[in-house]
Amino acid sequence: MGGPSAEREVSLVSGRECAAALRDEGYEVVTLDAGRDLCARLSEIAPDVVFNALHGRFGEDGCVQGLLEWLGLPYTHSGVMSSALAMDKQRSKAAFVAAGLPVMQSALHDKARVMAAHVMAPPYVVKPNNEGSSVGIYLVHEDANGPPQLAREMPSQVLVEKFAPGRELTCAVMGASQGAPPRALTVTDILTDGWYDYDAKYKPGGSRHVVPADIPQDIFDLCLDYALRAHAALGCRGLSRTDFRWDETRGAQGLILLETNTQPGMTPTSLGPEQAAAVGITFGALCKWLTEDASCNR
After folding, report:
1. Could you give the number of structural domains in the chain?
2. Does 265 qualify as catalytic in the annotation?
3. What value does the mean pLDDT take over residues 63-91?
4. What's the pLDDT tens digit per position in 169-189?
5. Has 7 been annotated as catalytic?
6. In which domain, by residue range, is 137 found?
7. 153 a catalytic residue
8. CA distance linking residue 244 with residue 74, whole number of Å
9. pTM
């Protein structure tokens, strides 16, 4: 848990919650804040399974997964290739398009060019190509007088994506395990007063979750189908979560896939565990399933 990414604090919370749940399930648990000595610490501990509660770069982009493969340690969630692919928003979009899934128009541009002039007609969104949790997202409104002035911390190349209006929906998938097929859990409608940014995701009262979402059945079923197909298109395993925007005025044509998260938040009130609870799977049972799933993928 922890690690060096922009999502370190969220990861520490996920790690503490998962460790407590796994201890309650009868496992012996050692918590480890992932630093530069990670390889040495893991070799010293010699765990049966690594529960990966890292978020963001290094933890969910294939890097730590590669290290764990090198050490021969089984670990939770997705492998090297699918983690790297999901974290690269533009490349994962190409995989979604190949699978026949709907996405918004987007392109990678140099940061300087994006700040000099509009690279597409507003409204559009500018964000890092390989961060999560709405880190570093700029929404350029339709009536914007000029291009966005991006923070110094933004990378030299950024993703510019046409803005998808509508409601925030999400669907978690538990991957195939021990002969059972992948399972899309349910759909959550995320209600906020404004943009679903980092604060809306993680600060108390930042958003409200309606689970299961009160939406037409055909849209609900499409979310389940698209989430399963996205999980498969990226080659995910364990738990994933796919996010959507839905423009009600356009019906099924208004449902757009935004991205798939291979390391979704893991606290009892996070979106994935919240969906699991809604279908009768306790937080402890979900953590246990992830651990046993990792053991089966040794």
Report:
1. 3
2. yes
3. 96
4. 999 999 998 788 999 999 999
5. yes
6. 106-162
7. no
8. 31
9. 0.92
